[in-house]
Write a structure and sequence with these properties.
Oligomer: homodimer
CATH class of the largest domain in chain A: Alpha Beta
CATH topology of the largest domain in chain A: L-amino peptidase D-ALA esterase/amidase
Number of strands of chain A: 16
Distance between the termini of chain A: 16 Å
Shape of chain A: globular
Largest interface: A-B, 69 and 69 residues
CATH superfamily of the largest domain in chain A: L-amino peptidase D-ALA esterase/amidase
């Protein structure tokens, strides 16, 4: 698999996060001879927050994580690539139960604190014995440094590993936040899903962590799309080990939490953008901003409708400044618009305003912008104050290659 | 442009419809040296019904047709290909007004009875003088027989002309229904839109015709999708010239109208299926049926979500029996489903039931079905009596070729 042309030029080295140890194993669940199972162990007392797919056809591991999230603590995370354990009925539930039970026994902790995630083919039984058999070896291999191995073990159709790290101060104490993610289509071919995991040594109570994660998710993972196909397995989990010694955090509004909050948001946005930049077949990274909508939600819906339009995405793939398709998508988004007030800019060139192409429109600078790797579209609807920004990629032959011939 | 592999093997010869005369002209609006403007003249007293795009960014000709539809009569229809006259502001409104005024003067009739439709690039001013200049020649050329010419003149990215004809009895009188359509993407590249026009010599009052058209539209044009991109210009018009002598029609429930009603529905379904079979890049024709939904509307939404899923469409293009993507799409449709009650059949093979793959699943017969040109998917949700059937095509390299490189 060729690496995405949008892949980051350099990859940060992830430092240890106090209270986190990681190990990977080659279990041959679907892929052969590459690490495909990840075990992460967390210190006692680690606080957990989570956000999951809005699909109603949820995978068994998603159902399990949702169920145990309320107790707020985590001691381990087990992830496999190659099989989604989705649409697997009672058998899938039992697979999760066996993995959880065996992991709890291995690590000597409460099963209700074992989180699991799966990504891969939908509808095939998970060969869970391959995971449970590997647990002793995984336990012996646990180390504070294996962040890159972890990010690679969860990849499916991803062409590059997705990692990010930042530090922030809470009061006088420096804390670390590491994040890893995988994802390339929302559900990609047989094998993909959005999984993202964030780890910090900060001491953040689970309810505050949950609030922080839910907020940050809106403008990051909920603001990206590759193909509009929400996965059965989308899972975003945050773990705060509480190993750092700092002023107590009581609420998201605490003044001393603001730098951390900003860093945490940046971590999620960075990972989300990496996922788009590894979108299946992506050649161009597209930012779509909507201003002047009736409200923020309307702006978000319109921006996503443009971002998911096959005609907009293929035009961009063809470097065609075909802005008519953009307004076409705006019109079908189902949100209030007044066609005679719409302004469209591409790059920083105003293409259309007040419902028609600008007088003396010169396509040359817009055509030049379309040849670049980063495409910026700004729509001003002129009817309110709602705003949104979403990220997507173009729709290319590569997408068809990856998704139209994977298993055949 | 290569003809779609799904094109009908033979094309019916359309007979005259009493009260209808047609002519086409080469106006070089965008295409060069091919007929691109169509004039259809209708007998005095012709009753009209219409259904238009649900987009809020409607083209100027759509706004005009909506405005005049209430008076219920039509004397002419003017259609151009190559320019959609959409997102053209006040200039676009004035273009329509000039075409309407000149056509009314040429045919000596009420401007409020002149219907117009455009299809093509969005956002470019319509060179309407090219149309009005051609009106005298169009008038001289009017003939009862030029149905094929008419169907060809409105084509954009279409690879074959779309025509259909049927007869039906109203009482003892045989009446004729002819239909023509164009469309290849919902909005295709620069140049496409769904336009469909149906003509009959039956004597059907406009309110009854409207009811008939709106009903028939639901299970035909509202049940197809190529790429989910609803056009700014979608226009479906029905004209009943009333030249046939038959028992009076007072309501859609009249017993003597039932055969006509059936034929009219068949005409629309036939045209709608032709549009899908000419879907940009289409290699396979896909029928998706949903049974057992909460209600018909929910079934329709779920069927369309599956039909629009890029992952489902690319899997089918790749002849991959990847049914997990189908249930993935069901889960994100936003309608009530119980994942443990979903049954999936492909071809006539039950693949999954009660939320998991069937015991001893054998992929061979499903894989064989995927190699055919017609793909049939049946989903039973097991929670109610709602049903729907939609038609779509696969998503192939051809779609990317057509839409990613049209203007460049």
């Amino acid at each position: 698999m060729k690496i995405s042309p949008l892949a980051p030029a350099s990859v940060p080295a992830l430092p240890p996060v106090a209270g986190i140890r990681l190990a990977t194993a080659v279990c041959n669940i679907r892929y052969k001879d590459r690490p495909d199972v990840l075990l992460i162990e967390m210190a006692e007392g680690t606080q957990v927050a989570g956000v999951f797919t809005e699909s109603l056809v949820t995978a068994a591991p998603v159902d399990w994580c949702r169920e145990i999230l309320a107790q707020g603590q985590g001691r381990a995370l087990v992830v496999n690539a190659g099989n989604a354990n989705a649409f697997t009925g009672q058998g899938g539930i039992e697979s999760v139960a066996r993995v959880v039970k065996a992991t709890a026994a291995t690590l000597k902790c409460n099963p209700e604190q074992i989180f699991v995630a799966s990504t891969g083919v939908i509808g095939e039984p998970l060969p869970d014995a391959k995971i449970t058999d590997a647990l002793p070896a995984l336990q012996s291999a646990l180390s504070e440094t294996k962040w890159d191995d972890a990010a690679r073990a969860i990849m499916t159709t991803d062409t590059f590993m997705k990692v990010v790290t930042k530090t922030a101060h809470i009061g006088d104490t420096q804390v670390t936040i590491n994040g890893i993610a995988k994802g390339s289509g929302m559900i990609a071919p047989n094998m993909a899903t959005l999984l993202a995991f964030v780890f910090t040594d900060a001491r953040i109570p689970a309810p505050v962590l949950q609030h922080l994660l839910s907020d940050a998710n809106e403008s990051s993972f909920n603001s990206i799309t590759v193909d509009g196909d929400t996965s059965t397995n989308d899972t975003l989990l945050a773990f705060a080990t509480g190993q750092a010694i700092h002023a107590e955090v009581k609420s998201l509004q605490d003044a001393h939490l603001q730098a951390f909050k900003k860093a945490f948001q940046d971590i999620l946005t960075d990972l989300a953008i990496q996922v788009v930049k590894d979108g299946e077949g992506a050649q161009k990274f597209i930012t779509i901003e909507v201003h002047g909508a009736e409200n923020n939600q309307a702006a978000h819906t319109i921006a996503l409708t443009v971002a998911n339009s096959p005609l907009v995405k293929t035009a961009i793939a063809g470097e065609d400044a075909n802005w008519g398709r953009i307004v076409g998508a705006v019109g079908r988004a189902g949100e209030h618009v007044d066609k005679d007030k719409i302004h469209v800019s591409i790059g920083s060139v105003v293409v259309a305003k007040d419902g028609a192409r600008v007088e003396g429109y010169d396509e040359a600078p817009v055509a030049a912008h379309m040849k670049g790797q980063n495409i910026d579209i700004l729509l001003n609807l002129g009817i309110g104050k709602g705003r949104a920004k979403v990220y997507t990629c173009d729709l290319t032959h590569g997408y068809i290659d990856i998704n139209g011939s994977y298993r055949s």
